[in-house]
Amino acid sequence: MKVTKAKAEANRALVVETASKLFRERGFDGVGVADLMAAAGFTHGGFYKQFGSKADLMAESAACGFAQTAVLAEGVDAATFVNHYLSREHRDGRATGCTMAALGGDAARQPEPVRVAFEEGVESLLALLGQKGLTSDPADASQARARTLDLLAHAVGALVLSRACPDDSPLADEILVVCRDTILGSQTLLGAAKSKTRSGRSA
């Protein structure tokens, strides 16, 4: 029975989503094509009808993972994002968590299309997180981007360090708490400084 175009597209999307979760959980090298296709409910032979190579799937699955994180970042302020990102729930949910934290180290050793997918994913997160800091002043916009990049790098690094520790390690929780409080503290100070500046201008 011939598969319709719509069904073929749905099957492909299912493989990408399944791969995205498995790669985040086990790493790019921790999942073979046969196991991946079986997890999605398909045969190994169907893989190359849908993808040119495993690297192509890795790039698409990374984009899928970044899109899921973007949903969490869209429309929320920095504090809300950081509180979720550096929560124990997110730390333990590797398969559904941040692609950058789960696979950033792996991506550095992968073909260029995979690294491009990560670059684009990071840029999309920066854009979403920085929306509330947009300004018509190019100098202010540059500073806002730098602050957003610092926030994201700090959060990702903290999550990576925490996950590297045993799940029951006190250090795993300490890293989350200390880094979360530090990031939120810097955001609070920044907000207070902005309010003071605005008050001074209106006086």
From TrEMBL:
InterPro entries: Homeodomain-like_sf, HTH_TetR, Tet_transcr_reg_TetR-rel_C_sf
Keywords: DNA-binding, Transcription, Transcription regulation
One MF annotation (Gene Ontology) recorded for this entry: DNA binding
Superkingdom field: Bacteria
DNA-binding region listed in the record: 32-51
Ranges for domain HTH tetR-type: 9-69
Pfam families to which the protein is assigned, alphabetical: TetR_N (PF00440)
Record's protein name: TetR family transcriptional regulator
Organism: Pseudaquabacterium pictum
